[in-house]
Design a protein that fits this description.
The protein contains 3 helices and 44 strands. By secondary structure, the protein is mainly beta. One 2-acetamido-2-deoxy-beta-D-glucopyranose is lined by residues 187, 206.
């Protein structure tokens, strides 16, 4: 579609939206005073106030035990950082929260780094961070024991997702260092905790070589798992151990590392929770030979969406376009069901100093500074707009992270298309330590509040909780949304396990209580930590941190 026609359509769509809310305050970026201390190339919210950041073992400024740290805890209340001691190299790992609330980070870099002599290889690592009750993280540490607690197969650049029994499926990756793309692949799946003593071979991972690092993986509401890597997609049945081949992503677009697009499971709604997956960005090149690629190769603007029921699969992918091409975009849920599209570059590739004409060490160029919003329910071709979205002013290319926070805004950090800490004049894309939030309009108005929430919520149950609703929102007919969310593990333009399940419910006539019904089972929302948000007419409350399910260690069916 011609770009002019396209932007006209979105401008018209937005014009009508802004008429509906004439005095609405805008979106804004807020730069924090303190920096992240390490390059925050991975980020996961582990409690209502704490985010774990991981970098590679390198020469970052933040110190612990007389060496550079490569793990850190970011405090969302005070916007401050403290180092976290890590044993193994967490560079390019994945991770998630388990059914018992413990965070597991898996895989990583096989090598150490000269500045960190004590570093251990990370490619078979499992790093655990147990639930932390201290709002500031006092006494909370990572646990590692490489001799007894490790993956079956070596995995650098793997993916993972929490599944219906609260454990993790761990997917793909490569064994050791390879140039640019996957030449030494781990063509298998495994689980944490283990379900068997050998990894499960995967034809899909073989078929999707060579641009298949960090496969995009989602637990579906029937317990199966959707995966997309390169331009291939499947549904994997964990219980039957079978792969069902789905249509390719259209038009030769490849969406996984080093041609990173991103993917997201769109919000699941009762009563049927029909899953739909959206994949955006990446690259439309036939070759993966880095000598034939440059930092100026245009990225793909394509967004492809597929509904994963029989009818939707028969219909295949539906295509539309972002306002610009993006390599390494981030797709992140808002509690109201919209999707934030942020970061990445208009040209080039992921990885470091491998293609022609790198910009310094960066394989990518032309950073996209203005986010867009994707509205799933809008008509095809009118779903994406950046009207009212500000510029971040900070390029976020390879090795950056974004996460929704329990406060309802987005925490944005990282970017480092360099081998080590690289800062200084003349460096266009330095190691980035600045931390920002992207604050939605509702952060600056009076918001609904969830005044109390049980710590644990059982499946298929009804709960009534006290709330307060500002008078401006207490009107009959207001749009009420109650979302149960996993905020995901952000690494390499993908948010492992990120999920939004809408819950049926309603606000009492006096606006003082909210009654809602939890998802029917752990297939719809894999048992584990969740954040509950109440949104009234697009004004979202702060989230309530809960345990969805029993809180038992995996595997658990409740
Ligand atoms: C850190 O280095 C200082 C000075 O070299 C030394 O005195 C101190 O014992 C070291 N601390 C640790 C925890 O190794
Ligand atoms: C991967 O696919 C190739 C080409 O079809 C085949 O020769 C090879 O045996 C496969 N490898 C594995 C491990 O399945
Ligand atoms: C997917 O990639 C393969 C391998 O490059 C190619 O043969 C195939 O045509 C692509 N599919 C589509 C729909 O573009
Ligand atoms: C960065 O590291 C890669 C692989 O470790 C190496 O091949 C490359 O030469 C390094 N580049 C720079 C600029 O140091
Ligand atoms: C959920 O609970 C209702 C009764 O409250 C029951 O009829 C229904 O079968 C339950 N569903 C599941 C999936 O357990
Ligand atoms: C959670 O489960 C994992 C996997 O079995 C285990 O390693 C961890 O210690 C458990 N954490 C808690 C708090 O029970």
């Amino acid at each position: 579609m011609a770009p002019t026609a396209f932007s006209l359509v979105s401008a018209l769509a937005l014009a009508s939206l802004s008429l509906a809310a004439p005095s609405a305050p805008g979106w804004s970026f807020d730069l924090k005073k303190e920096t992240s201390g390490i390059v925050a190339l991975e980020a996961i919210v582990v409690s209502p106030t704490l985010v774990v950041f991981f970098d590679r073992a390198s020469d970052d400024p933040l110190q612990i035990n007389n060496h550079s740290a490569w793990g850190a805890l970011w405090n969302l209340e005070s916007s401050t950082v403290r180092p976290l001691d890590v044993l193994t190299n967490s560079f390019c790992a994945s991770g998630a929260l388990l059914s018992n609330g413990t965070m597991a980070s898996v895989g990583g870099d096989p090598d150490g780094f000269v500045g960190n002599p004590a570093i251990r290889p990370g490619n078979q690592a499992i790093r655990l961070f147990e639930p932390c009750d201290s709002p500031t993280g006092d006494g909370c540490t990572l646990f590692e024991d490489p001799a007894t607690l490790h993956l079956l197969e070596k995995r650098w650049y793997p993916s993972s997702a929490r599944i219906f029994d609260g454990s993790l499926i761990i997917v793909g990756g490569m064994h050791e260092a390879t140039p640019f793309y996957n030449t030494d692949p781990a063509l298998s799946f495994e689980f944490f905790p283990r379900k068997e003593d050998t990894p499960r071979p995967s034809e899909f991972l073989n078929r999707s070589l060579p641009a298949n690092l960090f496969p995009r993986v989602f637990a579906l509401p029937d317990g199966k798992v959707f995966m997309v890597a390169n331009n291939q997609s499947i549904i994997y049945d964990i219980e039957a151990k079978t792969e069902r081949i789905l249509p390719d992503v259209p038009n030769n677009v490849r969406v996984t590392n080093p041609m990173d697009g991103s993917a997201i499971l769109l919000p699941l709604s009762p009563p049927d929770f029909v899953p739909e997956v959206l994949v955006c960005g990446g690259s439309q090149t036939d070759t993966i030979d880095p000598s034939l690629l440059t930092s100026q190769t245009p990225a793909s603007s394509q967004c492809s969406r597929i509904r994963l029921d029989e009818e939707g699969i028969a219909k295949g992918w539906e295509v539309e376009h972002m306002l610009e091409g993006r390599i390494m975009p981030e797709l992140v849920h808002l509690p109201n069901g919209q999707v934030l599209i942020a970061n990445g570059g208009r040209t080039g590739f992921a990885a470091i100093a491998s293609v022609s004409e790198p910009v310094g060490n960066s394989n990518a160029d032309h950073p996209v500074l203005v986010p867009s919003l994707y509205t799933p329910d809008a008509p095809l071709g009118r779903r994406i707009s950046n009207v009212g979205l500000p510029s971040s002013g900070i390029p976020r290319l390879y090795h950056s992270s974004v996460t929704l926070t329990p406060q309802g805004n987005f925490l944005i950090a990282g970017s480092n298309p360099n081998n080590r800490t690289t800062v200084g004049p003349g460096i266009k894309f330095p190691s980035e330590f600045r931390v920002q939030t992207l604050d939605p309009p509702f952060m600056s108005v009076e918001r609904p509040k969830i005044l109390n929430m049980p710590k644990k919520l059982g499946f298929n149950k009804s709960f009534t909780v006290p709330i307060s609703v500002p008078s401006s929102l207490a009107r009959p007919g207001a749009k009420v949304q109650i979302s149960l969310m996993d905020l995901g593990f952000s690494s390499h333009a993908f948010h492992s396990s990120a999920r939004l399940v809408f819950m049926n419910g309603k606000i009492s006539q006096d606006s003082k209580s909210l009654t809602f019904t939890t998802p029917p089972n752990g297939r719809v929302y894999p048992p584990g930590p969740a954040t509950v948000f109440l949104t009234i007419d697009d004004v979202t409350s702060e989230g309530a941190w809960v345990m969805m399910g029993s809180g038992n260690s995996p595997p658990t069916l409740e």
